[in-house]
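Journal club prep — side note

Before the paper discussion, L.F. wants everyone to see what a predicted structure for a comparable chain looks like in token form. Sequence:
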Amino acid sequence: MSVDSSALLALDAEAEIDRIATGLREQLRGMRKRGLVLGLSGGIDSSVSLALAVRAVGARNVFCVFMPEDDSDPDSLRLGRLVSKTFGVEAAVEDIGPTLRAMGCYERRDTFIRELVPDYGPGWASKIVIANALESEGYNISSLVVQDPQGRQTRLRMPPAVYLGIVAATNMKQRTRKQIEYFHADRLNFAVVGTPNRLEYDQGFFVKNGDGAADVKPIAHLYKTQVYALAAHLGIPEEIRKRPPTTDTYSLAQTQEEFYFSLPYDRMDLCLYGLNNGMAAEVVGQAAGLTAEQVERVWADITAKRKATRYLHLGPQLISKVEEIGG
């Protein structure tokens, strides 16, 4: 059976944009909010979400926030400003670096890193990377990569306590950003937009009560390939559409696949689509340029991440339901 990979995730861009815009307007009416706030990173997902918000309620009813910190790529702020200018949206810069320093975010992270690299300090940089799903035999093993002031990199296996400590400290960044977004939403009586695409939403690629917190998530049903299709239709600047997806979280440059997904988004999308739609591994492999065995390994990785991150999708758990409010 021959499969056209581009056809699997094809959609009518204008019809989908209209559907999302209509849905956003209905959701705002239900919440009695008059506009939308979102954090703008200069990446494809937040840029498309901003354009959809403008399509739904107009630029005057959308507000975006740039929230750089000490480890941010300067290009993120530049590209975010390009998007806000392109769509005529009011924006504010909120440097969260001082807040993170005051809370000990960087020092907490560095303390855990120094358990493995005692010399780690000023002039050093780091990131976390994950094993390739095609080679890891189903085990998601994360490693720490450090770079010394001379530019030499070392990759180290982390004991669980070090890994959890670094991630816990880093998650303070996303939670601080969300506080800022809700401040602006509250003062404007706007709703907060979350920006995960389907791959991120399905696989739990977000921080609970951080970038996972939102009032609306307009692209969570769209595969990232489809997000790019909408981006071209909406007029997102080409520089952003060609920018490789990054986390922009660690001090070393880090792609999303080396941190979490193991494969580029277009191949992950096809594997996820095939799994969701009951396609044979051989057929998915043909579309994604993988062997059937490799597809099976990716599917095992997807299933494992779904189990591990299921709690991220849960609301607060109650001992007894409060029937009067439907909880």
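L.F.'s comment for the group: The mean pLDDT is 93. Keep this in mind when we get to the figures.
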